[in-house]
Design brief:
The structure holds two protein chains of two kinds.
Chain A (H helix, E strand, L loop, with lengths): L11 H4 L37 H12 L22 H7 L2 H4 L11 H18 L3 E3 L5 H18 L7 E5 L5 H8 L3 E5 L9 H7 L4 E7 L11 H10 L3 E6 L11 H4 L3 E4 L19 E3 L12 E3 L5 E3 L19 H37 L15 E4 L1 H7 L3 H10 L6 E2 L8 E4 L7 H20 L1 H5 L12 H6 L18
Parallel strand pairs in A: 2-3, 2-4, 4-5, 5-6
Antiparallel strand pairs in A: 1-7, 6-7, 8-9, 10-12, 11-12
Helix pairs in contact in A: 3-11, 5-11, 6-7, 11-14
Chain B lengths: L7 H11 L28 H13 L6 E2 L12 H7 L2 H4 L11 H18 L3 E2 L6 H16 L3 E5 L4 H10 L4 E5 L13 H9 L7 E6 L9 H10 L3 E6 L17 E5 L15 E5 L12 E5 L5 E5 L6 H4 L12 H39 L13 E5 L3 H10 L2 E2 L2 E2 H4 L9 E5 L6 H15 L13 H4 L8
Parallel strand pairs in B: 1-12, 3-4, 3-5, 5-6, 6-7
Antiparallel strand pairs in B: 2-8, 7-8, 9-10, 11-14, 13-14
Helix pairs in contact in B: 3-11, 5-11, 6-7, 8-9, 11-14
C-alpha cells in the first residue's frame, strides 16, 4: 500500500489540481442555462476536486487496499454473518434488464423484475413459515420499524390503544429498543436468565394489558437457541401482545426452525446476512418482513401481485386502506433482492439447510478449540455464533478483549464483534459462517490461543497492537471533542468551467 | 452447497472433535414440536442454468424504450470507472468500519463523501448515508421535531408524492400537514406561500419544520429563500429536498438558509435498478450535528500522530444509546455513497455542470418541439430539466407511445390522483443521455398518436443499438 508522508492517502481534495479532468461529457450550448432566473442560479460553483481518471482510479484502488474484507480474509464479525458473496450475483444484478429499469416504469414493461420479486416473496414466506412477505424495507432496522408499525396498527384497529410497551431482552440488538422508540413505544428491558436464555418468569411478570409486542432474536445474540420459545410465545399471545422475531440470526436455523410455523407473528430478514448480499462497507442491505395472518392487512404498500393470467403488477396506492403505508420510495432495494433471489435458487431448499448445518458445525468446532483458553460462559451447543469471554485472561494478565481483538489484526484476521451483547463481561461474539474452511478455523483458533499465551509472556505486545495495520489505534476522544467532519475547500479554488 | 468448503471428511473431523455422530445433535435444543418441516423450495440450480434463467428474466424488462421518465430517478451516463472500482472486493465485501485500523479505506471514502456532498449542498455536516431520498426526508422531519421540541411538520405538495407517503408513515405519532400548491397563474405548481404563512401563523400550533423541494416534483423551481424566511420567522427549521446534479447550477440549500438538506443521491452514478439500492443524502448545519441520525466519520490521528479517520459522535447511535438513539438506523448505503464519490471525482465539477446544463438544453429543445405540434406545458414557471405537459387522455397516449418504443414520462394522474389540475398531465424529463434524434422521433410519434394515426412500420426510436448497453451505463 502506498503511504504518503504522515497521511495514509492524500484526500481527493489534496490530489485536485485546477484544470485536470474532462473528456467525459460533451459541452452543452453556451446559453443552456440562460432561461433560469438569476436568483435560482448558483453563485459560487461547488469546490469539487478536479482530477484525471488515472489519479481517481489509483486513489480508490490504493484506498481499498487499506480495508479488510471477506474477499481478503476471515471476517468472523459476530451478528453480521460475513459469508462469501457469490460473484454470479454481482453479475446478475448488473444485467441491463435489471439495472436499467426505472422504478416508475409501467408494470407491463417490468414483468421480469416483478416475477423475480414475487418468487422471492414466496421463497422467503416458505423459509420463515410466514403467510406473506414485503420486500420494501431497505435494511433490517427499517424492517423492524415496519413490523412494529404493523403491530401498532393491529392493536389500534381493535381499539386496543393502551398498549404502549415493547418488551425486549437485555441481550437484544440496539436497533430493537431504538425501533420501539421511533414507533412511539416505551421499551421494557428484561434481564436474561443465568443460562443466557430468556427469563420466562420475568417476561410473564412484565407482560400485561400495556404490552404491545415482544421482540426476540432467536437464536439469541449469544448464539443460543431459545428452547423456551414455545412457552414464551404462548405467554405473549395470552397477554394479547404480538411476537416479533429479529431475524438477524436466521443463518443458524434454515430448514430447522420456521418462526411463523412456531407462532411468531412477524419477523424481518437481513438478506445481507443470511442470503449473502454484499455488506458494501456498511450497506446496502435489504430487510424484507414476513407476517402471519393477523398482520396481513397492514403490510406496506405496494405489494407485488400475481394476476390470473400469470402476469404481475404492483398494488396501486390506496388499493388497500388498512396498509401502514410506505416506508421509503418505490418497491425496495431491488438490486439487492436480485442477488438474494440468485442465492436462494442456487442453494435450493436442501442447500439452505446445509448452509445452517455447516454454519452451526463450524461455530461449535471453533468454540471447542477455544475451550480452556478463553471463558465460555454458556456451556451448551451454540448455533451459528458463540460468545467467548476474556474476563479470566484480563484478571490474570491485565490484557483486555479489546487488546486481543487488535492483536488478531496482526495475525491477518478481522476481529470478532467485541463487547456485544452487553451482558457478557469482556465478550467476543464470534461467527465463522459456513463458507470458511477447517484450515481457516484452525488458524484462527491457533492465533487466539497464541495471543492468550503472549498476554502472559509479553502483555505489552498485545496491549499496543495492532503493529502491522496501516494505522495504530486512533485518538477517538479528540475526534469526538473537536469534530472534523468535512474537508474545507482549498484556498484559491478556481471557478469551474472556463467556457 | 455451492459455496461451502467442507468435504465429508472435514465435517467428520469437526463432528468427532465435538464427540458427535450427526450435526442433528447440534439442533437438539429446538423443541420437537417446533421443528421445521422440509422446505418446499425448488432444488438447487447450477450456476450455468441459473445464469441463463436470470438473463431471460432480465430480458423481459423493456429497458430498450427511449425514456423521458424521471420523477425523482434519473438515468445518467456513468463513467465505467465507477462500477469497475465498486467491484473490488475490498469495498463491497467489507462491513461497517467498526475496527478502524483495518478499515481506513472505507473510513476515508466516507469522509470524502461527506465532504463532497457538503460542497454540493453548501452545508457543514453530512451523514454517511441513509436508505434513500424518501427515508432521508422522513428522518429530517423527525430531526426538526427533536431539535425544536415541537411536533407539527408542514410539507409542500411539491415534494415527491412517495416521499410524502413515507413522511406520513414515519410521523404517525406526530402531526404532518401538506401545504397546497398554487393552482393557477405564474406561480402555478409551486408552494402556495400565502397558505404556508397562514399555517405557520396558527395560534398555539407551533411548527417544527417546513419541507419543500427544489426542483419540485413537477420540475419547477421553488422560491426557496422566501419559504426559508417564512419558516424561520415562525421559529421553525427549514428542510430542503434536493436533487444533487442540479446543485451544480442551482442555488444550494446552504445559500438560501436551509437548516437541513435531504434528497436522493441516485443521479450520482447509480443505476435505476427498479427502486434501489439508492443513496439517501442527509445534511445539516453544525447546530444540528447531534440530532443527525446515522454514522458520521471524522478526521483524527493515530497514536503515532498519523492522520486517520474514525466513526465519531457515536452517542447518537442505536448500538450505544438503544431506546434514546437519534434513529434506529444501522446498516446504511455505504457502497452507494462510494459510487457517488467516485462518480463526482471522475466527472469533476465541470463535468457535473455539463451534465446539468445538457439536461436543461435538451429540455428546452423538447419544449420547443412539443410547442410546434401544439402541446403545451401545464405550468408557466421556470424549470431545469423536467416539466409537465397536458394531452387529452394522457394514460392512453402513454400506452400508445410504449407500443412505438417510447416511455413518455409519468402519467401524473397515477402519481397525484387528487390534483385535478394534473388530470391530463405527463411529466417528462431529459438528461445528457437524451439526444436530439430521440426528441425529434418522440415528438413525431406523439403527433401521430394525438392525430389517431397507426404506427408506421416497425417501432421507431428504440433501435438495436440501444439494447446493447454496457454494464454500468444507466440509460
Amino acid at each position: 500500500m502506498s503511504v504518503t508522508g504522515e497521511k495514509l492517502q492524500p484526500t481527493l481534495f489534496e490530489r485536485s489540481s485546477p484544470g485536470r479532468g474532462g473528456g467525459k461529457i460533451p459541452h452543452p450550448p453556451k446559453d443552456a442555462l440562460d432561461r433560469l432566473p438569476d436568483d435560482a442560479r448558483r453563485a459560487t460553483p461547488p469546490a469539487l476536486p478536479e482530477m484525471n481518471e488515472p489519479d481517481v482510479v489509483r486513489h480508490y484502488v490504493n484506498l481499498s487496499q487499506l480495508n479488510h474484507a471477506v474477499d481478503t480474509g476471515f471476517y468472523p464479525l459476530g451478528s453480521c454473518t460475513m459469508k462469501f458473496n457469490p460473484k454470479l450475483n454481482e453479475w446478475a444484478a448488473r444485467l441491463p434488464g435489471f439495472a436499467d429499469l426505472h422504478p416508475m416504469a409501467p408494470d407491463e414493461v417490468a414483468q421480469g423484475t416483478l416475477q423475480l420479486l414475487w418468487e422471492l416473496e414466496a421463497a422467503l414466506a416458505e423459509i420463515s413459515g410466514m403467510r406473506a412477505v414485503t420486500l420494501q424495507p431497505a435494511a433490517g432496522a427499517q424492517g423492524e420499524l415496519t413490523g412494529i408499525l404493523m403491530i401498532r396498527a393491529y392493536h389500534r384497529e381493535r381499539g386496543d390503544t393502551d398498549r404502549d410497551e415493547v418488551l425486549v431482552p437485555d441481550s437484544s440488538h440496539g436497533t430493537n429498543p431504538a425501533t420501539a422508540s421511533m414507533a412511539g413505544f416505551k421499551t421494557i428491558t428484561i434481564p436474561s436468565a443465568a443460562d443466557g436464555g430468556v427469563d420466562l418468569d420475568a417476561f410473564k411478570a412484565a407482560l400485561g394489558p400495556r404490552s404491545a409486542a415482544v421482540m426476540i432474536t432467536n437464536p439469541s445474540t449469544l448464539g443460543l437457541f431459545e428452547s423456551r420459545i414455545g412457552e414464551l410465545l404462548d405467554a405473549v399471545h395470552e397477554a394479547g401482545a404480538l411476537a416479533y422475531m429479529d431475524g438477524a440470526n436466521l443463518n443458524a436455523i434454515l430448514g430447522r426452525f420456521r418462526p411463523g410455523q412456531a407462532g411468531f407473528d412477524v419477523m424481518h430478514f437481513n438478506v445481507h446476512k443470511t442470503f449473502s448480499t454484499p455488506h458494501g462497507g456498511g450497506g446496502p442491505g435489504a430487510g424484507p418482513v414476513g407476517v402471519g395472518e393477523l398482520l396481513l392487512p397492514y403490510l406496506p404498500t405496494p405489494r407485488v401481485l400475481r394476476l390470473d393470467d400469470g402476469t404481475f403488477r404492483l398494488e396501486r396506492p390506496d388499493e388497500r386502506p388498512t396498509s401502514i403505508g410506505r416506508l421509503r420510495s418505490f418497491v425496495g432495494n431491488t438490486g439487492v433482492l436480485v442477488r438474494a433471489y440468485a442465492y436462494i435458487r442456487a442453494h435450493g431448499g436442501s442447500g439452505l439447510r446445509e448452509v445452517s448445518d455447516d454454519a452451526v458445525l463450524a461455530a461449535n468446532y471453533l468454540k471447542s478449540r477455544l475451550a480452556g483458553t478463553f471463558d465460555l460462559p454458556y456451556d451448551r451447543p451454540c448455533k451459528h455464533e458463540f460468545v467467548a469471554s476474556g474476563a479470566s485472561l484480563k484478571a490474570k494478565t491485565g490484557v483486555r478483549t479489546l487488546d486481543v481483538a487488535k492483536r488478531l489484526i496482526d495475525h491477518g484476521f478481522h476481529p470478532p464483534t467485541i463487547y456485544f451483547p452487553l451482558i457478557v463481561e469482556e465478550g467476543m461474539l464470534i461467527e465463522p459462517t459456513e463458507t470458511e474452511s477447517v484450515e481457516t478455523l484452525d488458524a484462527f483458533a491457533d492465533a487466539l490461543i497464541e495471543i492468550a499465551a503472549e498476554a502472559e509472556r509479553d502483555p505489552e505486545m498485545v496491549t499496543s497492537a495492532p503493529h502491522t495495520a496501516p494505522v495504530k489505534r486512533l485518538d477517538e476522544a479528540t475526534a469526538a471533542r473537536q469534530p472534523n467532519l468535512r474537508w474545507r475547500p482549498m484556498a484559491g479554488a478556481e471557478m469551474p468551467c472556463p467556457d | 452447497m455451492p459455496y461451502g468448503p467442507h468435504t465429508p471428511a472435514d465435517r467428520e473431523r469437526m463432528l468427532s472433535a465435538l464427540g458427535l455422530d450427526s450435526v442433528d445433535d447440534l439442533f437438539a435444543d429446538i423443541p420437537v414440536d417446533l421443528r421445521a418441516s422440509a422446505l418446499d423450495l425448488p432444488p438447487p440450480e447450477p450456476e450455468l442454468e441459473l445464469s441463463a434463467r436470470l438473463r431471460e428474466m432480465a430480458s423481459r424488462n423493456r429497458t430498450d424504450l427511449v425514456s423521458f421518465l424521471g420523477a425523482g430517478v434519473y438515468r445518467h451516463w456513468t463513467p465505467p470507472a465507477v462500477d469497475q472500482l465498486l467491484l473490488r472486493g475490498e469495498w463491497y465485501t467489507a462491513y461497517t468500519p467498526y475496527q478502524p485500523e483495518v478499515s481506513q479505506g472505507t473510513l476515508q471514502s466516507i469522509y470524502e463523501y461527506e465532504s463532497l456532498i457538503a460542497e454540493l449542498v453548501d452545508m457543514d455536516v453530512v451523514s454517511a448515508s441513509h436508505y434513500d431520498g424518501a427515508a432521508a426526508t422522513a428522518e429530517a422531519a423527525l430531526m426538526t421535531c427533536r431539535a425544536t421540541r415541537r411536533d407539527r411538520v408542514l410539507v409542500s405538495r411539491g415534494v415527491h408524492p412517495q416521499y410524502r407517503q413515507t413522511l406520513h408513515t414515519y410521523m404517525r405519532n406526530l402531526e404532518l400537514e401538506e401545504i397546497p400548491l398554487v393552482a393557477e397563474g405564474e406561480a402555478a405548481g409551486t408552494t402556495d406561500l400565502d397558505a404556508l404563512a397562514r399555517m405557520l401563523g396558527e395560534e398555539d400550533r407551533p411548527v417544527a419544520g417546513v419541507i419543500a423541494a427544489n426542483p419540485d416534483f413537477l420540475g419547477l423551481l421553488e422560491p426557496m429563500s422566501r419559504i426559508g424566511e417564512l419558516t424561520h420567522a415562525a421559529g421553525a427549521l427549514f428542510v430542503a429536498v434536493i436533487e444533487p446534479v442540479s446543485l451544480a447550477v442551482l442555488t444550494p440549500p446552504g445559500a438560501y438558509g436551509a437548516d437541513i438538506a435531504a434528497g436522493e443521491g441516485q443521479p450520482l452514478g447509480i443505476a435505476p435498478q427498479y427502486g434501489g439500492p439508492y443513496l439517501g443524502i442527509l445534511a445539516s448545519t453544525d447546530a444540528l450535528v447531534r440530532q443527525i441520525p446515522g454514522r458520521l466519520v471524522g478526521m483524527t490521528t493515530d497514536l503515532d500522530g498519523k492522520r486517520a479517520f474514525v466513526m465519531t459522535l457515536r452517542a447518537r447511535e442505536q448500538d450505544i444509546r438503544r431506546d434514546k438513539a437519534a434513529s434506529n438506523i444501522c446498516t446504511n448505503q455505504a457502497l452507494l455513497a462510494l459510487a457517488a464519490s467516485i462518480y463526482l471525482a471522475t466527472i469533476g465539477p465541470h463535468g457535473l455542470r455539463d451534465v446539468a446544463a445538457n439536461g436543461a438544453a435538451r429540455a428546452t429543445e423538447l419544449e420547443t418541439g412539443l410547442a410546434a405540434i401544439g402541446v403545451e406545458r401545464v405550468h408557466p414557471g421556470p424549470y431545469l430539466n423536467e416539466f409537465a405537459i397536458r394531452v387529452a387522455d394522457a394514460r392512453t397516449v402513454h400506452r400508445r407511445l410504449i407500443e412505438r418504443g417510447f416511455l413518455a414520462g409519468l402519467v401524473l394522474a397515477d402519481a397525484e390522483p387528487d390534483d385535478p389540475t394534473l388530470a391530463d398531465g405527463l411529466l417528462l424529463a431529459t438528461t445528457e443521455l437524451t439526444t436530439s434524434g430521440d426528441i425529434a422521433r418522440f415528438v413525431a410519434a406523439l403527433q401521430e398518436v394525438l392525430s389517431g394515426r397507426p404506427p408506421v412500420g416497425v417501432e421507431t426510436g428504440a433501435g438495436a443499438e440501444r439494447a446493447a448497453n454496457p454494464v454500468g451505463a444507466t440509460r
